[in-house]
Design a protein that fits this description.
Helix content: 25-40%
Radius of gyration: 33 Å
Shape: extended
Largest sheet: 6 strands, antiparallel
Number of strands: 25
Strand content: 25-35%
Number of domains: 4
Oligomer: single chain
Number of helices: 13
């Protein structure tokens, strides 16, 4: 890495251009900018077509630009490679521009480095020295306590932390000042919430949310004797948190941009109203959590696996248990003292709860996953793209209709359709019973029960005349 001390480094820019018709950057050039009020920033030049006046703007990210009318001077940032200078141990000042004396110089100093644990404030616009010795700029986008990136152009183009050798803030601007105001409000809110008060009517059972859940649970058990706290909390849970110095009930909506998001409950004003709300809010989850229905076949996952495996094996004759395990594994694990269905795919390190309400629902899902696994393990040996003209498939245009022959001798069909903004595709396995048909006409009747023309655009009258398709299916 470079040998000079960035803490002592000064960059002296002395090649500024005045804003004028015949002397502006090339389209898309990234430049250092001096505003008419004396502040400094940077941006990518996007001119407008006007030969008589200077018009356009300097873009800083997707929704942030500086109109040229606010700018007095500019100097290129592209084209400089400071590597040779930065490798000198005693270098303290680097001139960007002409070595000759110039009465107009802007000096930028006070560089910092991530390796020292220094980070910009969120939304702060900074000048950057990259590890390849070039210059850049960007607005710091905080992604975590020790993570972020510098956004510098539209579509969130960014410089990652590991590409930056040193950085220093440029002038403050409206976006940064708004962020600073948010931070001041956050700190003020934090101070208010150090000693929150509680409305005695709303919090007469205290400020432990479980007290309210327990009371709602008592009422639910009158209808559903199997009800538990864990079942209730499968529905996005409510919490008690301070806001503006007072406790509130709110739905815990997780985090966004590192901040907890809690949606306040505003449908009542008393503790008993909130208890009644919790009972209704969680009712459906509890109703559909009857362990007799959910674990109808017991709590040994092997029983469920065997049932699903045997059903799939009837049609997918090449399928074996190793194929199933390589694709998706199932388990029954204990969560908060209760058994739960769980699964993990081959790229997962651990099992994740699969919130399935019934044993038969789990079996249906297992069968689908096993079918997917079986098709992935059966390579294609031949294909036939069914020809068609313009076909409307329920508002979408049919794009592909391909029949594949598999190594096992079985067949599957791939259908794709879409419009100008969306699209989708599906794959269908043609079950062996279709080929038990004595005639091709009977075969098509069975086939169209799997790939119905009413859904996918091609009906019997479209497929029957296609002799190549008939031959491909072995008739």
């Amino acid at each position: 890495m470079f040998r000079c001390d960035y803490k002592k480094l000064c960059l002296a820019f002395n090649c500024f251009h005045d804003v004028q018709v015949d002397d502006m950057p090339e389209y898309g050039d990234y430049v250092l900018i001096e505003l008419k009020d004396g502040r400094h920033t940077a941006g990518c030049w996007y001119p407008k077509d006007d030969e008589e006046t200077v018009s356009g703007s300097f873009s800083r990210d997707s929704f942030d630009s500086v109109d040229v009318g606010e700018v007095s001077k500019w100097q290129p940032l592209n084209g400089y490679d400071l590597t040779g200078s930065l490798e000198k141990e005693n270098i303290n000042r680097i001139i960007l521009g002409s070595d000759e004396d110039d009465p107009y110089i802007v000096e930028i100093r006070d560089f910092k480095s991530f390796k020292d644990g220094d980070f910009p404030k969120n939304k702060q616009f900074c000048l950057l020295i990259l590890i390849d010795g070039t210059l850049a700029a960007g607005r710091w986008n905080k992604l975590g306590e020790d993570d972020g990136q510098f956004i510098y152009a539209s579509a969130l183009a960014s410089h990652s932390m590991n590409k930056v050798w040193a950085w220093t803030p440029l002038s403050s601007d409206e976006i940064f000042e708004e962020e600073e105001e948010k931070e001041r409000e956050r700190l003020a809110e934090e101070e208010l919430n150090k000693h929150p008060t509680a409305d005695p009517e709303k919090f007469k059972y205290g400020t432990d949310i479980n007290a309210y859940y327990e009371k709602a649970l008592e009422k639910l058990r009158e209808e559903y004797p199997w009800a538990t706290l864990a079942q209730m909390k499968k529905k996005t849970p409510y919490v008690i948190v301070p806001r503006h110095g007072q406790y509130i009930f709110g739905k815990d909506c997780g985090t966004y941009m590192g901040q907890n998001v809690v949606r306040e409950w505003i449908d009542g004003s008393t503790a008993d109203e909130f208890v009644d709300f919790l009972r209704e809010y969680t009712r459906e989850k509890v109703k559909n959590s009857d362990p007799v229905v959910k674990f109808k076949y017991g709590t040994e996952i092997k029983v469920y696996f065997e049932k699903a495996y045997e059903k799939v094996k009837k049609d997918y004759r090449w399928f074996n248990k190793e194929m199933a395990d390589n694709y998706c594994q199932y388990a029954i694990i204990e969560v908060d003292g209760e058994p739960e269905f769980a699964r993990k795919f081959n790229n997962d390190k651990e099992f994740h709860v699969y919130d399935c309400e019934s044993a038969d629902g789990l079996l249906k899902n297992m069968e689908y996953e096993f079918q997917e696994a079986a098709l992935k393990e059966n390579p294609v040996v031949a294909e036939y793209a069914v020809p068609f003209g313009r076909v409307d498939a329920n508002g979408w245009c049919l794009e592909k209709y391909i029949v594949y022959k598999l190594k096992s001798g079985d067949y599957k069909v791939f259908v794709q359709a879409g419009d100008r903004t969306a699209g989708g595709s599906r794959e269908f396995f043609i079950t062996p019973d279709c080929f038990e048909a004595k005639t091709y006409d009977e075969f098509l009747d069975r086939y169209l029960e799997i790939v119905p023309g009413s859904s996918f655009g091609l009906n019997k009258q479209d497929l029957a005349p296609d002799m190549e398709l008939k031959k491909f299916f072995g008739y």
